[in-house]
Amino acid sequence: MTGTTAPTQSGAPAADPVGGGIERLIATAIAAALILALLPLLIPVMTVRIAGEGVATRAWFWISARWHLPAALGGIAAVTALVTIEVLLLAHGIQTGELTTSWDTVQTVIPWLVVSLFAGVLLVPAAWLLRRRKIAGLVRARQISDVVNQTRIETARKVAADATAARRIGVHLDTVTGKITGITPGGHTAPHPIPGGGSAFAVTVEQTVTTAAERFRDRRAVRDWIDAPNRMLVLPGTSSSVRALVIAESGSGKTVLLNGMILCALAYGWPVFFLDAKGDPADATHLAALARSQGKSAGVADGWNLFTGTTDQVTAKLMRLMPSPDGANQHYLDEIRGVLQAVQDRTPVTGIADLRDRLLNPGEHVRDQYDLRMVNNVVDREGTTAGERALQALLVALRPLEPWLSEDGWTYDRPAGDITIVPLSPVDDAQARLGDLLLLDLRNFLATRLRRGDKTPVLVVVDEFPQLVTDTSDPGDTAGSLFETARSAGVGLVLATQSPAGLSNDETRRRRALTSGAALIFGRSKDPEDVVQYAGTVMQMEASGTAQGDELRSARAQHTWVIPPQDVREAADGAFWLVQAGAIAAFRALPQAQPAPTPVEPAPVGHLDEDAADEITTVDQEEEGTA
């Protein structure tokens, strides 16, 4: 009939009354399908464009959570499924004849378009991940157009890496101030057991977003201190390999780091000696409680036996108590040394009482008549002998040390427990002198082990060690000589100080300590240039214009620090770097589990025997009368 449309086959769409027929309907359907597929990309693309490169200068942009990748993949899967369903429904409507006109198609698709648009929110995590990867590649190639932004982005990536490492071990870190705000119960604590053996005291800090080029780049691996997966810092399994110089300012987490290393050594079953020149009894009590919580014994401030070692070693320690030679007193110092050597011909002095007996009655202790006359030589009009004058000087010097001395006290060969803790306050002259004697005796201990071939493991840790070095010595020389000898003697040695300047006022001696072969560990410091130079430099190209292809206009190659000094100045609490044999590892110290609050009995301090105390009192009274 005129004006009617011929019937169609079953399931085929009717002709489009708007015009264009079936071809227009199919074209509309295809356009709708493409829009449905592309519309979800609008929100993530706009989000990335609006954010630009500026967002990459914030640390949170680079912090990766475990849910980021699953969220990105889940979003892609959800949007893909949604678009697929919408396209299939569109095709089904056309095939069944439910959509017979372009207008029907448009009306049906409009709600789907709205859903697809807002479904793009699910693609934002994926766009964010891709954007971070792209910016990371630009930063590595130094192709960020704004040099200031380049530096800010690099800093933000480091802050994010540190914050991610902190979160991994259960530490809450304020990324703005670098302050630790809390610790999650059940997080990693030191000592942390490592599969296959070993005990970790820190976790490595790695970039949260790395490019393929960064992953496959060869890097020098840190020996001894890093586990095989390169995720944890472990205490080397042999004590001779534990040699470290720790430099970090107060409040940077140095004490937590040292405690972690000590707890790892205790887990290995090594005896540990900790000389703490901060002198805070609370720190000593806390460390002792940590050790006891591991089932280890701890001695705090136990009396120390000064009279151990060979004749020369005992003489050296006693002479250390005397004033520094200044020319005028050299004769008296030589006299004291001479009589000490004379009365120790057969055996070393064993205590204060023995010292007094030998100097007052030298007959059976000297080698010959010459030595006897030297000790009994009258040196003044009152009839005082050289031995008596030496005894008086020595007893006066020993009196301030009385609370810390005991003839049956601990020695490096006979520790007070699994860990021997000696808190010393450098502001107290007597304790400072005691610390100097302990460092001298440590040298004697190393020499004795070398002489007898003793390689049994032992660890010695000295915090704020420059405070214990007297004016007659230099901390740089002391550190250098101790490190150089400790390895051969099989002794683990960790020396800590607050700044490179504390090592020595002399640059050569300071460099000797820093280049002694020990691992260099440093944290936050206001004067980091002297330490970051040992991490090395890299050649870096700074260009104007686009630094690629034919568009490179001008460029300058220059050496820059591998670890920028400003990064060290701004380091967060608990953040450190380890440099050894050309290798570098950034790491974060593990916290320690808090021990149960149990009362700790104060350890007995050493004492002089009553006769020696009476002798010293008599000497003091005589001096007061003379005055």
Explain the overall architecture.
The protein has 627 residues and is α/β, with parallel strands linked by helices. Among the domains are: 21-134, no CATH class; 306-408. The protein has 21 helices and 16 strands. It has helices at 21-38, 42-51, 59-62, 68-96, 102-119, 124-140, 147-168, 212-216, 254-268, 281-293, 311-319, 330-343, 352-360, 369-376, 386-398, 429-452, 475-489, 507-514, 529-532, 565-569, 610-626; strands at residues 171-173, 180-183, 192-193, 199-204, 232-234, 243-247, 272-276, 298-300, 419-423, 458-463, 491-497, 519-522, 537-545, 552-561, 575-580, 583-589. The strands form three sheets. Strands 3, 4, 5, 6, 7, 8, 9, 10, 11, 12, 15 and 16 form a twelve-stranded mixed beta sheet that branches. A two-stranded antiparallel sheet has the order 1-2. Strand 1 (171-173) and strand 2 (180-183) form a beta hairpin. Helix 1 (21-38) runs parallel beside helix 5. It is elongated. It starts with 20 loop residues before the first helix and ends with a helix. Mean pLDDT is 85; it is low at 1-20, 546-550 and 600-627.
